[in-house]
Amino acid sequence: MKLQLPISVLLILLSASPLVQSFAEEEISYPLTTFKYFRQNVPLPEPGDSDIKMDMRLLRFSAVVRYQGKYRPLTESKKKTMDLLEGMNVFHGKTAFFDHEILIKDRMDRELWIPANGALATRIHDQLEVNEEFTAMFTYLGCCFDRKDRILFLNRIDFNVQHIPEHSCFTEELLGFKIRSNFKESLRRAEEKFGKPVKTLESERGQRVHIFLIEKDTETAMYLRDGGPEFSDYVSSIQISSYAGSNMELMPGIAFGDKEKDIEDAIGRDLRIRHNKDADLHFYEPSACTFELRDGRMFSIFISEDPYY
Hints:
Elements: H1 18-21, E1 32-33, H2 35-41, E2 52-54, E3 60-73, H3 76-87, E4 100-105, E5 111-116, H4 118-127, E6 133-144, E7 149-158, E8 173-174, E9 177-178, H5 183-194, E10 199-202, E11 208-215, E12 220-226, E13 235-242, E14 249-251, E15 254-255, H6 260-267, E16 272-275, E17 280-283, E18 290-294, E19 297-304
Parallel strand pairs: 1-3
Antiparallel strand pairs: 2-6, 3-4, 3-6, 4-5, 6-7, 8-9, 10-11, 11-12, 12-13, 13-19, 14-15, 16-17, 17-18, 18-19
């Protein structure tokens, strides 16, 4: 997983404070992603015996966020969290530098109070307007069981902004259904068109998958998947597969039964091939969207959000 980088157990600290800058920094990559991707790939643990669930990988990631014009000293509840962390004898006084927190919004318009050094919080406040974007670099420590809060520290900032594309797919729509559309509305439309789902599944990430039979004689099915527990309102991917020879057109220029050259001409991209036992997966990087071919003919198409959106 992209977020799982080998790292030291020392926190990376950066602010205008000379005291904080006295700690040597490591050159470490903070892969650009979104809070949505982070939350989907690092699920909250279930309650256990301890108050804090540590993640000793200390995952780092960057995300474009919007400053909401507010910062404050740490709340009492977060101070207690810091005390618990110090009690683990891992951070050796370094949590004391995160004495403030700032209010941000992620790309899903969720408000989050994030611990940061006071000098860094002041710098952000002085240079950014309300709702102005910046790139925030975070370290993930774990979870407090009593509030289901994620423990994130804001370590670094960059006033330059580079957005993650919402999708890197060849299309956002199949048979009139779109990724990132409202999931309940998409289910309602699918039931009106195809009837009730023939099966409902749940993925290992807690994402619901509703399977609709759209052509009985050709055993053609559509799979609608939501974004998981925290993002269940949105369609995150759509797959349509035919197991008995449909020639249905799925989008302009692409239909079941097409050959690789037909697909490449339709989307204007050269495809790479991953050979598997039952079918060949055709794709281009960095897209997560794919075509499956068997005996040289396409029988399944999959579209989704950008892998790191």
